[in-house]
Amino acid sequence: MIKSKNKLAATIIFVISIVYMFFAIRLPAYDLVPVDSDVVPYVLGVLLLILSIILFFEKDPKSEDEEGAIKIDKSALKMLTFIAVIFILYAILFEVLGFIVSSTLFIFVSSLALGYKKTMVNVIVSITTPIVFYYIFDLLQISLPKGILPFL
Amino acid sequence: MDILNGISQGLQVALSLEGILFVLIGVLIGTLIGMIPGLGPITAIGVMIPISYGMDIHLALIMMAGVYYGAVFGGSTSSILLNAPGIEGTIATSFDGYPMAQQGKAGKALAIAAICSFVGGTVGIILLMSLAPALATVAIAFGPAEYFALMLLALMAITSLSDGSMSKALISGVLGFMVATVGIDGQTGTPRFTFGNINLLDGIEFLVIGLGLFAIAEVAILIINRNNKSQTKLHKIGSLRLTKQDFKEMRGPMSRQSLVGFLIGVLPGAGATIASFIGYTSEKKLAKKPEEFGKGSVAGLAGPETANNAATSGAFVPLLSLGIPGSGTTAVMLGAFLVMGIQPGPLLMTEQPTLFWAIIISMYIGNIFLLILNLPLIPYISKILLIPRPMLISLVIFFCVIGIYTLSFNVFDLYLLLFFGVIGFLMKLVKIPPAPFILAFILGDMMEQSLRKALTISNGNLSIFVERPIAMSLLIVSLLSLVIPPLFRYFKRKNASA
Q1: What integer pLDDT is reported at residue B235 of this predicted model?
Q2: Which of B82, B73, B85 is nearest to B106 (CA)?
């Protein structure tokens, strides 16, 4: 398992270097400059390719790896995906509903999903925090999206 | 004259009512964020950048200095109270700080940490004041070839000093450099790797990378471990008072480690983390009663705490005098300076001496306020550690979103934040260190431009790097820093098996 983790990472990095170089080749060329804009990307692509091969054949120090390894089970993965999804929703609605409404929804839903039990406290925190920050930034002359709230 | 002028102006701003208020805000927020396990100066600086926008530049600077020192101190606080280091640089603090807290002397440990941080930081700043100008005078003669070599050295140093596999650290650096190539090329105007997306034409904001790789990736870890009950027990703080005997025991480590820590901090790649470990082990070797180490020894706490703060100041030497950061944290600090319109480097001292000295004075003031304002408030600030994890996680994400959005006012950057958060999390899973990534990302553009400028000057001839003595020696040192550690490990293993 541990061994395959490094090899998997090496394979992914190998693919990244190939894709990166593929796009580097397609960069348009200029004649008048001694070093064109594709030179550095080539060098980087080749370096990453070599490094991914080295990583693939590298022996991993076992004792160290087992100790600090992060364990993810299915429920943790589910939770991470869920938070990522509501983060995306938050970003989509950020300018549509406005800063205060979208942030309130995000803080409330994500705290609830992560297992926060005191609903009343959650409601209060998720409503007041965005309002407070809205006005702090207003004071600093930075205006956050108003969105659907008409009275701001 | 310029120096005195700069110092007096820096003092004037810092000691105004507004100045004190913003230092206090900076120190408090820095401490709060630094306390949260996994979140450190990078996140704290990132979240505070938007707040500094409309501010007077001197005020913004002293606030940031407060944030920086506050975050480091916050890391020590959670090391002592929870045995959960807030940042890497304070891991060694927990060795003796946590046992002290278990014995009911958390207040004493915090006071020792604060005083040692202050001494380490202050000595560091004084050394910085003398070393940075000297280095800047040398660096004025640097051309693009020298700059390229210097930046390469910084990158090589951080990869060779990061623990674990060196190829992984190098991969991290190359990936960061690759991300830096996204956007319009500065010399030919060619859009690179933008995939036709107009949002990518200007490249990617450094804060997206910083908060994604460090804050969001760490949030993912917090989500996984959110039910871990062992980390929610907080020790009573108790009295902050120190005895004469304590001071006596602190004196030796403080005077030694502030020097050693500073020197380690100046070196590219080596930062607070390495300084604090060296501080701990060297004090243990020098101690009269080494068996007390790990059981709440005063010297065992004073050593690493002094060293990491001295290193924190030392890290500013290359940043201010050369404009080149040597660590992930100073890389983000450079980003913050650039947002404020300050370009650190050798010209900063000669062309804007008041600003240069104001930065240094503000660090000094930030350090003093940390001691006199922050320490008495610690019992209250540490209450943040009692915020239930689910709420804390939601709020950290919320703060990252504010930080990113107010930087660009572009929702696209929020998607990028999530993207780099996922990248950072995956890197954590396979143990690829994120620090070389952010350093390479911030240096990448400068490195590429100086490389190409150098080659343009020489008409495409690589010999420019060999003919210029400084450039060549810097390149040789970078090469050595890449080759020596593996060789060293190889011989060590050979000796062990023989």
Answers
A1: 64
A2: B82
Cβ atoms within 10 Å of B252's Cβ, excluding its own: 16
Low-confidence ranges of chain B (pLDDT < 50): none
Whether residue B184 lies within 8 A of chain A, CB to CB, comes out as no
Contact status, residue B357 vs residue B6, Cβ threshold 8 Å: yes
Cα B106 → chain centroid: 26
Q: Indicate the number of domains in chain A.
A: 2
* CA-CA-CA-CA dihedral for B102, B105, B106, B110, to nearest 10: -140
| Separation in Å, CA of A139 to nearest CA in chain B | 10
Q: Are residues A98 and A62 in the same domain?
A: no
Q: CA nearest B433: which of B273, B213, B154, B219? A: B213
Q: Which of B123, B154, B471, B93 is nearest to B334 (CA)?
A: B154
Residue B126: helix, strand or coil by DSSP? helix
Q: pLDDT confidence of A1, banded at 50, 70, 90?
A: very low
Both tokens of residue A5? Answer: 């983790």
Which of chain B's residues have a Cβ under 8 Å away from the Cβ of A112?
Answer: 390
- Could A30 and B188 be called an inter-chain contact, meaning their C-beta atoms sit closer than 8 Å? yes
Predicted TM-score (pTM) of the model is 0.86
| B350 conformational bin, left if phi > 0, alpha if psi -120 to 50, beta if neither | alpha
Q: Structurally, how many domains does chain B consist of?
A: 1
Distance from the Cα of B444 to chain A's closest Cα (Å) equals: 10
CB pairs under 8 A between A and B: 165
Structural domain of B160: 2-497
Interface of B with A in 349-388 (CB under 8 A): 388
Mutate to test the interface with B, among A17, A31, A44 (most CBs of B within 10 A): A44
> Which residues does residue B191 pair with via DSSP β-bridges, in sequence order?
B184
- Interatomic CA distance for residues B423 and B445, integer angstroms: 21
**Are A64 and A80 in the same domain?**
no
In a domain, residue A135? The reply is: yes
